[in-house]
Amino acid sequence: MTSKTAPLHAKVLKPESHLIRKxxxxxxxxxxxxxxxxxxxxxxxxxxxxxTGCGKTRFMEYMAWRLKRPLITVSCHDDLTASDLVGxxxxxxxxxxxxxxxxxxxxxxxxxxxxDEVVEARKDTTVVIHPLADDRRILPMExxxxxxxxxxxxxxxxxxxxxYQSVLKxxxxxxxxxxxxxxxxxxxxxxxxxxxxxETGLDxxxxxxxxxxxxxxxxxxxxxxxxxxxxxxxVHAAKLMAxxxxxxxxxxxxxxxxxxxxxxxxxxxxELASSLF
Amino acid sequence: MTAAVRLSADxxxxxxxxxxxxxxxxxxxxxGLAAAIAPLARESQDFILNWVAIIARTNAExxxxxAAAAPGALARLDPATAEAWIITAMDAYDRDGLxxxxxxxxxxxxxASTARESAAVVAFEDVAQxxxxxxCGLAGRRLSLDTAIHAYTDTETLYLPSRMALHSxxxxxFFVYKALATVMWAQGCFGTFNADxxxxxxxxxxxxxxxxxxxxxxxxxxxxxxxxxxxxxxREMRELRDGETDDPRCASLTAASATVNDSIALLARVYPDMxxxxxxxxPVLQPDQAAAVRKARMAKxxxxxxxxxxxxxxxxxxxxxxxxxxxxxxxxxxxxQPAENGNASHTLMLDGKPVAPPENVSQLMxxxxxxxxxxxxxxxxxxxxxxxxxxxxDRQDPADVWKGVYHEQGAYFYNxxxxxxxxxxxxxxxxxxxxxxxxxxxxxxATLAKYAPQVTQLKRTFELLRGEDxxxxxxxxxxxxxxxxxxxxxxxxxxxxELSERLHIxxxxxxxxxxxMLMVDMSGSTKGWINDAEREALVMLCEALEVLGDxxxxxxxSGTTRKRCEIFRIKxxxxxxxxxxxxxxxxxxxxxxxxxxxAIRHLTTLLNQVEARTxxxxxxxxxxxxxxxxxxxxxxxxxxTRQALIEAHRTGIKPFCITIDREARDYLPHMYGQVNWALxxxxxxxxxxxxxxxxxxxx
Lengths: 277, 699
Description:
The complex is a heterodimer of chains A (277) and B (699). Helix content of chain A is 42%, strand content 16%. Chain A has eleven helices and nine strands. In chain A, strand 3 and strand 4 (95-100) form a beta hairpin. Chain A is globular and about 65 Å long. In chain A, 40% of the residues are buried. With 699 residues, chain B is of the alpha/beta class. Chain B is 47% helix and 15% strand. Chain B is built from 24 helices and 19 strands. In chain B, the strands form five sheets. Chain B has an eight-stranded mixed beta sheet. In chain B, helix 5 packs antiparallel against helix 6. Chain B is globular and about 95 Å long. The interface between A and B is large, with 38 and 45 residues.
């Protein structure tokens, strides 16, 4: 333990003026960077598809850094309404004051608005997304009776996991057909190893074993697992190992328990992990 | 509290007299029993008296035997084990009668020793599911597991002993299972059966010994392979060996390049003097069984592979184009360096250019590579016109079952998709709606009793789902103030407008505007416990749906040939979940075949008559579509079903399939789409899982 305690207050950032200065670590899988840049230049919104933990959010950070635009992320939940995105009136000093929502702020500052897991949001959000996502590029602000015209620097992006089985959480055709879609999946073994090693400083041999474990769990998808271990889980496990946690314990905590609650499945994954380490 | 006072022999005798009265006589009194129990602690005395009373309710003589044996037993067994001992004996009485129960009560010593041992014993059924998942992770496909006296594999199924009690430590016994399973997986993966093992051993004076030695050598080689791929497991395997080491002459087998042929070559050198290994995780080689299974599989895969190639060609060039010199167009390129875990991926080439084969073809290639180590040239000849289709069997005239549809009311006609013609066959199928003959409604009650705890939990989960609160804003009355509305109203008031009255937030339940159609497979193949599980699953699902309030209907489907497709009404949308519906569920009986396309088309029509925002068509199935004639089995049936599902999807219905067919992965994604299906491989869990899947599907 260090004698100095960390300061108790976090840095306050304004998303619309915050630019990512440090290059985020991102390994391109295919032509996604070129595709995104082309879509950005043509002012077409982008839809990122793919399972959890395969690098969608990191890709957005990387593109924000590359394009030097602020990134405003909205994690969608089932109570997120259109006015949460656009903005609302608040009262200060006996007066009403308009406060922009994240989407309106992103439009005003010409940033990248990233709606994470957009299917979770309430259906009325499509009302504001649609006019912004086609060639009109306007954000209707109903309460103010205004239309916000997006500058050419603004881009709308959203992410979506097609692996969900719920019929109520599907993207409507009218929404999805407004977007250019980029499909993400888990990277190839070689690339995944590079990612783990760069992110955590783990040695190549151990990283290889982790990747083999990931492939084993991905084999189990549909046989009791809804998803295999994502690259993010591998990075977590590798970080634990780099801090001196025994590999089997790290895999159990970061991979097995994160994937399942079923005792037999847990045991099977732990046995796979202990076979490798 | 002070310890309760010990009961005296007299008091005990009185109590025993009372309970054991029917089996006591002037010559057989409880005095001896009481005298033996009297010196024990009060808890032990209570324990004995309590159980004597319980057992006497079943059989007084058995209670007497127990009372006689109990003092001795309590000295040897702890209370938990003693209880297990009593329960075992009572079970024996229920099954085999008094004689066996008495024997068990008399033989405490034996029970005590097996009890100690059984703490360490691992039973196959306890670990089967874990091993199954473990192997699936390892091999990338499901291998079936079964029990046999010795561990061996026929390359499709891994056989394991039903109990493992070699070590006094439970964990170690599990390791032996795991090691056995891994070695047998390695036998397949690293090509033990790629050589003719019987022929290799038959030249020796004692072929059985030769085979045993070869097995030892192979295990040494495989262990080295395992050590490279799974170092952690190899370490555990070394621990199981208890210091037993390999013959130094076998060192060459541990090289990465060693194959089964090296083991066979080495066999000649070590045959005279080497002793076969004896460690615990050595499976037995059964080359004859392996060869038979392998031969059947290879023939089947060669056929399938060639058909697949022909199809690739057809997709690329169209079926009309002439196809000269088929055999020279495909080739396979091996990877530059073999991957160390043996899963090297070969590339399929067509006219010198790599082609991406569909998922099922690359799996086929992997499987062939695992058997042969390469893809031989004769495999690469695409099947010609003659052998392209599977040979037709059971050619029977569908007119045999013609039932005169024109003269009967209530017949529906449906088109069917012919994937070869790429056209519908007009009014091809004749379908009738029939009623299920009601069965005994007691089945429903029995199911609910059987799963009582789960039903309670199920209801609670679904109640939560139903009660999912939604905040309704701008309400005229409600639980809380809607700050946004107040601010808006305040702003309005400031600017001189009228104040709105809608200033409250109300919590309200969401309307679930959902209609679900359950389509139940009633084909002959569901006979037996699949049918039981299906019916139980329906009962559980109905309970859940009743709680939820979703509208639902249940129909079964079956039939023979296109002229006699049958849909069985179990519950219509407008029918309540009544006693009649319950007895219909109980009365679901396996019928004939599974012509799925027409059933889907009919139920789609029914479902579309209901007004709902979300419409779900859930199929409970146990296998591929199949019918008696018209070649419905196979591609035709799958394509027709797929087409019917596409039609349903077009009308706004979401199809979903719950299946118990382990091969479902090969065709269901094609029919239902990548995510619109779920596999339940353990039929016993079907009743519990179906409701769970429904919950996941609709939240």
